[in-house]
Amino acid sequence: MTRFSAFSLFAKALSGHQNWPEQWPDAAPKPAYDAIIVGGGGHGLGAAYYLAKKYGITNVAVLEKGWIGGGNTGRNTTIIRSNYLYDESAHLYDHAVKLWDGLSQELNYNIMFSKRGVMMLAHNVHDVQSLQRHINANRLNGVDNEWLTPEQAKAYCPPLNISPDARHPVLGAALQRRGGTARHDSVAWGYARAAAALGVDIIQNCAVTGIRRDANGAVEGVETTRGYIASKRVGVSAAGNTSVIMHMAGLDFPLESYPLQALVSEPIKPTFPCVVMSNTVHAYMSQSDKGELVIGAGTDQYVSYSQRGALHIVEHTLAAICEIFPIYRRMRMLRTWGGIVDVTPDRSPILGKTPVKGLYVNCGWGTGGFKATPGAGDLLAYTMAKDEPHYINAPFNLDRFRNGRLIDEAAAAAVAH
Amino acid sequence: MILIHCPYCDEKRPEIEFANAGQAHIARPLDPSGQTDAEWEAYLFIRANPRGRHHERWRHVHGCGRFFNAVRDTVTDKFEATYKAGEPRR
Questions:
Q1: Interface test mutation site (partner B, options A303, A306, A312, max chain B beta carbons within 10 A)
Q2: Are strands A201-203 and A208-213 parallel, antiparallel or unpaired?
Q3: Cβ–Cβ contacts within 10 Å for residue B3, how many?
Q4: What mean pLDDT comes out for the span A200-208?
Q5: Mean pLDDT computed over every residue of chain A
Q6: CA distances from A225 to A60, B48, B79 (A)
Q7: Any residues with CB less than 8 A from the CB of A3 and at least 6 apart, and which?
Q8: Interface test with chain A among B3, B15, B49, by most A beta carbons within 10 Å
Q9: What is the pLDDT of residues A89-111, one digit of tens each?
Q10: pLDDT 10s digits, A111-141
């Protein structure tokens, strides 16, 4: 693997950037591995990287049915934050935020993590009370979050309309300064490159079509479109398609898959310095380094695997954006797209073991999985390596839907997750 | 936006007139106190979530207000059929 540095950039510039080697090899499947990860998104690639890096399991394959990072990793709005209400969630998401710090250096890959701050708006008395409760809960858990007056919010994000007669008046905001954005594609590529350098096979265009189990019911391998691959440890990190994979192992999951949409505007000069979320009117926005406004819309109301959403969902979000940030009213939108998100009944993920021996799962991140990428990868790797969950992901087990210990972030995170 | 046929109004109307009400044909237990934890889990939380043919409930909230069932393909989003509540599963 070529180490990226200012010197290597300069040296390759002298030859017109013609001689860069491939960043990682396009591997073909071997007959057997010590561990298999199903799903080549950020979470799966991260799990493979940490398996090799931290837990010494390097004979690992990542199986991706399409191309690396072509699913939700390349379709999200790249927001990173950890201001979740409940203790379990705060620990889980803050574990990821801590790993985001320094990830560029660790992977030798610029993932463009920008701690520009995530600001959540309060539009009514209920919002004020709810956000202040969040701030207090977050601080007790060591997660930074602070209250801003409307004037302070306007100073932090000048395009914000705080006039008292606005359609959605701003009564204040909660700001997590450690939150921000990262370049989503780079996260997938950085993990893939670093994992491949440690011996992991990254196998694209390889869909899993079956899970083979031995006489005792334990996993012994997976059937794929590129042949049978043996492994006694299989981690599934397949987002919206998790239910489909789990059916192959005879498991029914508490998941439903919905299309979630996002869109970007034409690129403009830097005008929007942070991330702003408004859960009440459901709009959230940031500006990419290319200059596009990146806007997150909502999910469709019905189960679907179509990777397309309906236009009225986008219209609803844009109506709110135009009211909260009137300066953007005349902007044109360039692209919209959809990704399929797997949603659990309590809106918290499932990360741990399954009733099938050797089968592990990382799913249910719903509309907010990107922020957790390094943490989810690390914890899935830990769980697969030790055959038991880390204390951080232990509460996010499958059993909670039977014993009732739900982690009900549904009310806490509202729609924008 | 998808167009949905309401079997009561007998009209194809835009999706915004309707509310999706989740998976169809889930029967509430007749003897709630006799249920095990696993049975409650299956009733409350476990969902088919198929990639393909899916049975679901819709409610014509901005029309007749009534619930009905539908069969839809979750990859193409095309409806195969809609039928009145109480009719057998298609």
A1: A303
A2: unpaired
A3: 12
A4: 98
A5: 95
A6: 18, 24, 29
A7: A108
A8: B49
A9: 999 999 999 999 999 999 999 99
A10: 999 999 999 999 999 999 999 999 999 999 9
Instruction: Kindly compute the dihedral angle of the four CA atoms of residues A51, A56, A60, A64, in this order, to the nearest 10 degrees.
Output: 20
Asked if CATH classification 3.30.2270.10 holds for the domain at B3-27+38-84, the reply, yes or no, is: yes
According to DSSP, the β-strands at A275-278 and A118-122 are parallel
- The C-alpha atoms of residue A224 and residue A154 are separated, in whole angstroms, by 53
- Asked if B36 reaches chain A (Cβ–Cβ under 8 Å), the answer is no
Helix ranges restricted to H, chain B: 37-44
Residue A19 pLDDT > 90: no
Cβ burial of A2 (10 Å; 0-12, 13-18, 19+) is: middle
The neighbour count for residue A21, using CB atoms within 10 Å, is 8
pLDDT at A414: 43
CA distances to A238, B50, B63, B87 from B68, in Å? 32, 20, 12, 9
β partners of residue B78: none
Judged by CB atoms closer than 8 Å, whether chains meet at A310 and B15 is answered as yes
Inform me whether the C-beta atom of residue B44 falls under 8 Å from chain A C-beta atoms: yes
A257–B49 CB contact, under 8 Å: yes
Helix residue spans in A141-216 (DSSP H): 150-156, 184-197
- For chain A, say whether B48 makes contact (Cβ under 8 Å): yes
As for the ipTM of the complex, it is: 0.96
* C-beta of residue A406 within 8 angstroms of C-beta of residue A400: yes
**Terminal CA-CA length for chain A:** 37
Q: Where are the domains of chain B?
A: 3-27+38-84
Q: Give the pLDDT mean for A250-257.
A: 97
Residues in chain A: 417
Asked if B13 has any chain A CB less than 8 Å from its own CB, the reply is: no
- Look up residue A121 and give its two tokens: 């708006």
B50 touches chain A (CB under 8 A): yes
Query: Is A253–B49 a contact, with Cβ atoms under 8 angstroms apart?
Result: yes
- CB-based contact, B30 to chain A, within 8 Å: no
Identify the CA nearest to A115 among candidates A97, A132, A131, A141. Answer: A97
Q: B36-50 pLDDT, tens per residue?
A: 999 999 999 999 999
pLDDT digit string (tens) for A287-339?
Answer: 999 999 999 999 999 999 999 999 999 999 999 999 999 999 999 999 999 99
The pLDDT, as a whole number, for residue A410 is 66
Residue of B nearest to A307 (CA): B75
